[in-house]
Specification:
Elements (H helix, E strand, L loop, with lengths): L1 H11 L1 H10 E2 L10 H5 L5 E5 L5 H9 L4 E6 L2 H13 L5 E5 L2 H8 L5 E7 L17 H10 E11 L2 H13 L3 E3 L10 H8 L5 E6 L8
Parallel strand pairs: 1-4, 2-3, 2-5, 3-4, 5-6
Antiparallel strand pairs: 6-8, 7-8
Bound molecules: S-adenosylmethionine.
Length: 217
């Protein structure tokens, strides 16, 4: 309820709303594809965070790498409003917010080999057996992550749920990804990560490389 009230308050403020709308990509225009070069007005490596929450990680990362473009995808309308205002206030030309089910985006709307990195941190674990079908990670999603990543690019994953981590890691390997040694940039830096780290709770993270291409040094 507090979150709903906060989102309503933020969006009810015309100045904040205008700031949020500047970075919020309108996905309700009958679009069938997301075209990052058209979105950003340039061709640059593209990183996507799925389930970006309030954007703690992606705002920092976009500021850190101005030569890359970043898309924060969030399903919840309430959270997206807070996310968009925070991203807009950061005044970064290389950051946009898309409100959408990331499964639609990744499965249907992105071109093959067009993404430089996916960041997927603390996806909802849906712990009850009858809700498992709502989980983000499925063989279909893993196959789509693989299809849309450039050769040699990486999906970064973290979760606080050990059993879900095991399932995600297996699903990624079955899809053709190779477990990589690259540090997972969001494992300690998202909103949820910060809470878990502060509470001393374990975080299970891994990076998965799509084989192929030449590894740059
Ligand atoms: C547990 S929160 C983690 C938020 C953030 N990644 C973090 O670590 O602080 C999961 C987020 O994923 C979003 N989400 C869940 N299913 C999604 C989907 N299918 N597409 C996009 N976002 C989704 C939720 O609305 C929520 O904001």
């Amino acid at each position: 309820m507090a979150r709903l009230r906060k989102a309503a308050r933020i969006w009810g403020n015309p100045k904040a709303r205008e700031i949020g709308e500047r970075v919020l990509f309108k996905s309700d225009l009958g679009l069938f594809a997301i075209d990052p070069p058209a979105m950003f007005g340039r061709t640059a490596p593209v990183e996507i965070e799925i389930g970006a929450g309030k954007g703690e990680f992606i705002i920092e990362r976009a500021a850190e790498f101005p030569e890359r473009d970043f898309i924060a995808v969030e399903l919840s309308g309430t959270i997206t409003r807070v996310l968009a205002v925070r991203c807009g206030r950061a005044e970064l030309d290389n950051l946009r917010v898309v409100r959408m089910d990331a499964r639609t985006l990744v499965n249907l709307m992105l071109r093959d080999a067009s993404v430089s990195a996916f960041h997927i941190y603390f996806p909802d674990p849906w712990p009850k057996e009858r809700h498992v079908k709502h989980r983000l990670f499925t063989p279909t999603l893993a196959a789509s992550l693989y299809r849309t990543l450039e050769p040699n690019a990486i999906s970064f994953v973290a979760t606080d749920v050990r059993q879900y981590a095991g399932e995600i890691f297996r699903t990624m390997e079955v899809a053709g990804f190779v477990r990589a040694v690259d540090p997972v940039p969001g494992a300690e830096r998202t909103g949820f990560a910060r809470k878990y780290v502060a509470a001393g709770k374990p975080v299970y993270s891994a990076s998965f490389r799509k084989p192929g291409g030449v590894i740059s040094t």
